[in-house]
Amino acid sequence: MLRGSSVLVTGGSGFIGSHVVDRLLAAGHRPRIFDVRPSPYHPDVDAVEGDLDDLEGVCAALRGCDAVIHLAASADVNEVFADPVDAERRNVRGTLHVLEAARRCDVGRVVYASTIWTYSDTTADRHEESMPLSPPAHFYTSTKLAGELYCHSYAELYGLEYTILRFGIPYGPRARPAAVVPAMVGRALAGEPLTVAGDGSQSRRFVYVEDLAAGVVRALDPVAVNRTYNLVGDRDVTIREVAETVCAVVGDAEIDFVPGRTGDFAGAPVCGERAAEELGWRPTTAFEDGVRRYVAWRQEAATPVVVTVPARERVVTALMRRSAWALGWALVTAVLFVGLAVLIPLDSDLNRYNTFFSVLLLLLPLWLAGGFRWEEPTASRLRAGLWGAAVVSLALALVPWPAAVDVGSGHATLLVLLAVAAGGAERLVETRIALPTWLGASGG
Ligand SMILES: NC(=O)c1ccc[n+]([C@@H]2O[C@H](COP(=O)([O-])OP(=O)(O)OC[C@H]3O[C@@H](n4cnc5c(N)ncnc54)[C@H](O)[C@@H]3O)[C@@H](O)[C@H]2O)c1
């Protein structure tokens, strides 16, 4: 996909999605997040808060995008086990809405996040993308497989291009605390014994999340059209090995063995050769290095100073930057309009200096609306205020007021222009023009 492409990332506020957004930015693309919650990691990235349930909302978010990377889902197998109806709503109907919105908006590609759990009930020594699958036991797997089937049908019926990615077990910074590596690290850091399900000999194809995100972005390449890829680590790691690695990185801890979970993926080897050959993608982070990076991130995130002092500094820096931006913009336009004002008086009642200040007044709503990124509910209030200003200005200019309140007669042209400026500015709030990244509140 061409550099600078616009890509919607559903679930972009989540664990894998946030890394995909990082990778898209690094590759020079323009990500837009679609999620039910704001991103804790990318406050400056274009974002739409919405639910996959709302087909019109998904369409609106997708409009103008070149591709969608669809990650939003109920991704925790225990949550799915506890509430299968909600999992069906998010994983199955949600995927259908993404595909339908992509069809309606003529979006070039849907990249769908599936899982190697699709192989969990297939008896084979080695799992490849082309092999026939068996009906899954776990409902989570059924919902993800349904999404894969919908991708195929949309390609057949409507010619919508897809890429299916079956992820290995991701781990790394920002992971959900309940996942296996975070849970073990958490216990080890707290000085508690590590819990291993079964005898610990069952293995997993873990994949370090930053490597995984790189693979997801590679899947936007034309070669991946209507293809399925396993994105997995380069070797199996047993659960016992996970516990031992965590002990080695964090420090000594005891290991407790407990019964296995219902429907858990038994862990046959999954082959990543197709992704290597066609996408040129291989994971590059060794398991122990990945665990080290996760532990470092977790310790950094737990350091109180990171949360308080820099946050205040960030706000001050952002305010200074935004003020500089507003001042610079005002100066440029003032210089331009001084020139204009010298040449063309705006209204027969205004001299050139009054005209200059009037033009600044006309620009005020445009600066307000277009110079900043307004979030709801402030954006709605601003829009209402701008409409109010437009209506009042028009009323003052056009209504034949009695002599006692004859406000408009002197500056009718100016008031009409002010109404137009306020109305035009209202549209700018709608388009939510974002400040360039360097002006953003967090600086990263
Ligand atoms: N984490 C894993 O172990 C794993 C393994 C294989 C595949 N996957 C798949 O990768 C994808 C991302 O997983 P993750 O681990 O980053 O999960 P996550 O829970 O961290 O992120 C999912 C995001 O989707 C959002 N979301 C959920 N329902 C939504 C809805 N109805 N509308 C809009 N947004 C919604 C959530 O707010 C969240 O930010 C999922 O599709 C998952 O099935 C995950």
TrEMBL record:
Domain NAD-dependent epimerase/dehydratase per the UniProt entry, residue ranges: 7-231
InterPro entries: Epimerase_deHydtase, NAD(P)-bd_dom_sf
Alphabetical keyword list: Membrane, Transmembrane, Transmembrane helix
Chain ranges passing through the membrane: 324-346, 352-372, 384-404
Lineage top rank: taxon: Bacteria
Signal sequence annotation: none
Similarity remark: Belongs to the NAD(P)-dependent epimerase/dehydratase family.
Identification of the protein by name: NAD-dependent epimerase/dehydratase family protein
